[in-house]
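Why predict the complex rather than its parts? Because the way molecules touch one another can change local conformation, and only a joint prediction can capture that. The input here totals 328 residues.
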Amino acid sequence: MANRLVSRMLFGAVLAIQGLGTVACVARPAAIDENSAPSIVVLGSAQDGGYPQIGCERACCARVRVDPSRRRFVSSLLIVDPRSGKRWLIDATPDLREQMAMVAGLPETRAVDGPRPPLCEGIFLTHAHVGHYAGLIHLGREIYAADRVPVYASARFRRFLATEGPWSLLVSAKHIELMPLEPGVPVELAPDLSIEPFLVPHRDEFSDTFGFLIRGPRRHVLFIPDIDKWEKWDRSLEAELLGVDLALLDGTFFEDGEVPGRAMAQVPHPFITETLNRLAPLSETERKKVLFIHLNHTNPALDPASGAAAEIRATGAGVASDGQRIGL
Ligand SMILES: [Zn+2]
Ligand SMILES: [Zn+2]
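Output of the joint prediction:
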């Protein structure tokens, strides 16, 4: 109880600092007020390995071990709807335990029933890289023993989960229930709230890779935590930006050469510098919609006091933070 209270107080403080100031809003009819509207809670903003990352003793991670307030969980979102008391998770990360503690009791209208209430009404998975689905292990018999949590994933990803251990045990023991997720077909969470997957190019070893378009009653949000390069995508980033109010985009690396001892071409992502160059011809209104997420531990923009973070802010864009709330 005390832990829950502390986490809620911390969470409240983060919300109070961040407010909804980062949301660039395209005018839509405001039928419901900000407090009762659905929203997104950023559960994590780091790349798959989290921040700090295992084995890194350089300054980027050493400073976090000295000052844990700099810690960031692995990239994930929670959609909450206070009108129904429901909530849905996007990606299940290795940090799921702490992330669920961070949002205990959200939305406040959520009715919790029994000693092991459902953690959420559904989980939407982008792809089968460890930072995005390995948290499912927390739902199994050894830990939460969840009861048929709907897990939405692509056909290829569902086949992988159903046939490869340890995931197949979650399916056969009915801790999770696999649900279809097809590109271009929205899943309705409420009559005015939906999530629509689309394919993005990425290293697809075990699954294909989805980005998500989240449509709320007043705002539309694009979520693309992992993509190889904007140029390889069959859609135009600029055109997609025009259709949304906010975009949480792959900000894994700030610039080329950032990871010592690894050929960065083997782990392609759009460098933040590349994305900013691409956005430069757009209006400031469009650039303000962009929040970078999924930052690698080497990314200097993890530190708000860095030159890299200042460079991003100067364009109007920003970096997502854990606990940040985005009204839908
Ligand atoms: Zn990732
Ligand atoms: Zn990935």
